[in-house]
Amino acid sequence: MTTANKTALVTGASRGIGRAIAERLARDGFTVVVNYAGNKASADETVLAIKNNGGNAVAIQADVSSESDVTRLFAEAKAIHNQLDVVVHSAGIMPMVKITPAGLAEFDKIISTNLRGAFMVLANAAESLQEGGRIIALSTSVIAKSFPAYGPYIASKAGVEGLVHVLANELRGRNITVNAVAPGPTGTDLFPER
After folding, report:
1. pLDDT single digits (tens) 1-14
2. Which of 13, 28, 50, 128 has the fewest CB atoms in 10 Å of its CB?
């Protein structure tokens, strides 16, 4: 894929793995949309780092758990070069919640951000990308474990992997790849040393 005038949207790109992905895509020549939910200062730092290294980036605020925010995010991202070429869904949350009745509110929040958000991002990506596009969603290697208090997070990421498999089949014939990447524990704000 040649990257001149190509746009990549990275959700959760203001820090952590999302930021590293955004910076790499910029080094590869993409104009990068740095999506963030609430930390404008971190998003602006990411954009500045990309620009200081000769890249092109813009920050766009959108909460992936909000349908209207996701719709607006894709419209604004697509308007940059009148197309969208790559979508990396990295946004997510990971509060530690045991499987107890008291954990239901946190479970709902995790599912809303990590799974419902992934559904909306993947659905909008499928409608927005042209032939040859790429969709990547972040999952986690923690799915293979049964750590206490990780239940809601593991459930949300297992759901993301299911969506990725189905969307890949739904987009068959359009030359759009859909993949999940499951990094191991990485020392970021989301997954500090535990």
Report:
1. 565 689 999 999 99
2. 28
In a domain, 43, yes or no: yes
* Phi and psi, residue 72, nearest 5°: -65, -40
Contact present, 132 and 86 (Cβ < 8 Å):
no
User: Is 118 part of a structural domain of the chain?
Assistant: yes
Angle, nearest 10°, between helix axes 117-128 and 151-170?
A: 20
What is the set of active-site residues? 153
CATH of the domain at 89: 3.40.50.720
143-170 core/surface letters (b: 16 or more CB in 10 A; e: else): beeeeeebbbbbbbbebbbebbeebeee
pTM given for the model? 0.92
Enclosing domain of residue 99:
7-181
pLDDT of residue 187: 59
Residue 21 lies in a domain: yes
Give residue 71's Cα distance to chain centre: 14
Domains identified in the chain, total number: 1
What six digits make up the tokens of 63? 């909460």
CB atoms within 10 A of CB 184: 9
Q: Is 160 helix (H, G, I), strand (E, B) or coil?
A: helix
CA 61 – CA 35 distance, rounded (Å): 6
